[in-house]
Amino acid sequence: MKIITTNRRAQFDYEILDSIEAGIVLQGPEVKSVKLSKIDLSGGYLSFDRNQRPWLINVKIAPYPPAKGVQQNYNPTQARRLLLNKQEINKIIGQGQVKGLTTIPLKVYNKHGLIKIEIAIVRGKRNIDKRAVIKKRELDRKIKKEIDK
Question: Domain boundaries in the chain?
């Protein structure tokens, strides 16, 4: 499993409650672009249409440079369908109805030649929580520095 990209900001801004692996529907040039790490997960989230199909919204995949002729009128932030089974969809919908919870992409990776995306059900952190994380991280650095001397 080769990790292509991660949403580094998610660890800091959100408390991760649960994560699920999903497939993603991509066009040919998009697959090549993703394998070159030309994907940006920041600001992305999961949404459902009226038929309860999951869609990945606001994730940017840059156009693949050699395929300029094929990718005319290409929208890098278009909605992309996720491949989940019925149980996973029901789980996400059930937890998504709880106030304060949302679903965001965490990382994209290559698994047995297929592009997979890890999505997580998260709760936003308050500024107080973020400061506590920063304080703990700095304290751990100081302790490690003292031990190394």
Answer: 2-148
- Find tokens 């709880």 and name the residue: 98
Q: How far is CA 107 from CA 51, 68, 131, in A?
A: 26, 27, 24
What is the phi/psi pair of residue 71, to 5°? -100, 50
Exposed, middle or buried by CB within 10 Å (0-12, 13-18, 19+), for 33? buried
- Rounded to two decimals, what is the model's pTM? 0.79
Provide the pLDDT for residue 70: 65
Q: What is the pLDDT of residue 28?
A: 81
Q: Candidates 3.90.226.10, 3.40.50.1000, 2.40.280.10, 1.25.40.530; correct CATH number of 2-148?
A: 2.40.280.10
Q: Among the residues of the chain, which ranges form H helices?
A: 8-13, 28-35, 86-96, 127-148
